[in-house]
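README: folding subset

This subset contains proteins for which both the sequence and a predicted structure token string are available. Records are stored as plain text. Below is the entry for Major facilitator superfamily (MFS) profile domain-containing protein (107 residues), shown exactly as it appears on disk.
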Amino acid sequence: MCAVFRAAPPLPPSQAQASVKRQEEKPSYFTSLKSLVTNKNFLLLVVSYGINMGTFYAISTLLNQVLLLYFENSEADGGRIGFTMVLAGVFGSVLGGVVLDKTHRFK
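--- output ---
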């Protein structure tokens, strides 16, 4: 029988069978990692996020030291400035999401 007929058809007969076949052919961890590293859009996202978070963490870490250098006894003001930075980031993210949703100007 095997000499005349194939074990399986070349294309799966249904979406369910295609899904099962895709799950059986899972790529390895290194294959997935290689596809991420070679993806231009992913690298742009990683670099832009890294610059954004690095800048935020650097400013928020050094804010009190820089502020106290020029304004004595202003520890409370440093906390308020940091709180304002966090709130601006939250509202900016929400506003950016709404604008992108309305304009559809994203990849």
